[in-house]
Amino acid sequence: MKSLGNVRCFFLSAATLLLSHCTQVSTTEQLSLLSFLLNSSPNRSTSSETVITVTPERGIQITSSSLTVIFADTKTLSLRLASQPSQNVTIHVGFDTSKLTVNSSGTSPFDLIFTTSNFDTLQTINLDALTNANDSSSLTLSTQSSDSVYNNLTASIPVTIQQASASIVTSASTVSLEGGGTGSFGVRLNLQPTANVGLLLSFTNSKLALDASTSSPLALTFTSGNYSSQQTVNLRSLSNVTENTNISFIASSTDGRYSGLTKSVTASISNQTRSLVFTPSPATLSLNAGETGSFTVALSSVPTSDVTVNFTYTQSEIYIKKSSDSNFDTDGSYSLTFTSGNNTAQTVQVKAVSNFAVSSGTISLGTTVPASPNGDSSFNGLTASVSYSVSLNVPIVLSGDIQNGTQNSSSQTANYSLGTTVDPSTSFVICNFQTNSSDTVNATTCQLNGAGTQVIVTKGAAAANNVTTNYYVMNFSSGISVQRGATTLTSGTGSANLTQAVDSAKSFIISYARTSTTGNTSDNVKQVQVSFTNSTTLGFSCNGCTNTTVEWQVVQWHTSSVQSGIANLSHGTSTVTANLGSAVDLTKSFLIFNNSYTPNGGVGYEQNYYTAGSFSSTSQISFQRGGTGGDLAIQYFVVSIPSGLVVKSNSFAMTTSDVGICDTIPSGGVSNYLKSMMIASNRIGAINQATNVDSASLTYEFQSAGCSSAGGTHLRIKRDNVGTDSGTPHDVHGTYFLLEFN
Hints:
The radius of gyration is 46 Å and the shape is elongated. By secondary structure, the chain is an all-beta fold. It has 2 helices and 53 strands.
């Protein structure tokens, strides 16, 4: 090839061009120069581009050396420099403004500016014809630059304008959809119609929905005013199968150019593998009884509709909730929702509430989406599972201090707020009551409220008499499961169902009764025996009860060993013993009981049903009352705890003149009274009176020496009076068990 030295010229393919300051160049030389630039320039173009050459090292690259523009159909042309200029280069694009627009502009020339940094980036111009007629025109290119190599160059690109036929124009011939996914394309007309044009879009409605509808065909209308404005058609795949399906158009109009025109767009659907994603994976939880664990669940990709994840679980073993929920779901089914466009992981909390060990439990998950055509079908019907196990071999752990208090109230119901909220499912309350009246309506119950924020104390009726309540609330972080409820008896027996089965060899019952029956001679209606009928049912027995309510708590102490039974104190006897199946460690065991009472003369005599219970030995318990009238059926629970606490017990006596005593706790007392509570029982002297409740009901408080302030060495035991309201004082004897937690 012959060297051109400083020759400057434009070269468009092999066409003859207007040359400025250019010597004659043979066609062979032109082709050789084009080849050289394409293969050796630092920023060479692809072989489909045409080159306007400047020197063997420099050039302007364009995507076409001639253009055909069809009316109402935009044509594009792209340009760039072949190598880096030393200064900015402006290419002026001139055109006939009566025939063409460039980038929607009717002002000629239209300028493109290339800099030293964007010189090799293609810049595109859009050409549109102004009239719908066959014609010809041209684009003139001229350069302006302080770089002398690129300055003052001119060339012409021929443009052929073709008349357009009426047609339906779509923004895409194929729309790719994921299974269950969405997409869209635009539709317009290319020429202004003389009358409205209706388009019917037919499709297979088992595979697609158009504009959220499965009614085929979909109708669109174009007018002379909106024909060129693109109308968007939204698609949703209703299947998750790899396949192509067509959307067929047909036009109807009194404008003959459009009547009967057809068009089609292909929806290309690709199968998608969707799943639920867990962290940890696989999702497996190993829980202790009462413990809460968690996992996260997410969707494998972003859904195009809401996706609901439904959980099915065994509510006797676990409860479940989302971390942002206030309360656990307890009915065996739960759901959470991922909204359209969101697959962010959500945290699910699982609480072990089983009172039996669970070696292998399963939470089943399944997904649902809104009904067709609005649901993302690729996420419908997904299934997964989360496995869990529950261990009961967990020592008790007291959470914080035991909350206690002594309150007075004459109201029928008093609510005593706790300083710290407790978990009702792992907490229980022990109460002692002192009253100044023997009317049976002053029999009082206590219970934790459902929120774990209050102790609720209730009398049988709105009597004006004062009741002093001494309460102890224990909250555990592990080792304890508690169920509670209230059961009203309208006859001598009743029952209550537990929400969870319990192991009676590890469980005991705390109960308090109240009645709306008035007077002081029907004390039997406030004495209720509460027992386990089976693992899911409580049984109640009461002589003469017609309107008695029992507030009960069932406590399963998972590491405990509970021996239970019924001891009967028959009419005419004051003492009964019960032998235990196995000996117990008295430093780790306590006795709690309830009883029913059937009078046999001496109705209302407290001496006949107030009973004290204690250990006679490591293998025997005994119960003693002050009187001998009537029959008592005593349901007892001997609870032995291998670790986590120390039990100290003691017997006490109040003489006929003692309203209160300051009893010394054995073995140096308790080291921390805020980690201690007591379970107590007492009997009264054999005085045949029906007005002794005020002198037999007691409260217990931890005190220091002298009982002048709170402490752990002594126990203050108090009653309202010594029996002076009846004229005959009586003594009181009892036993208490102090439980000090480690």
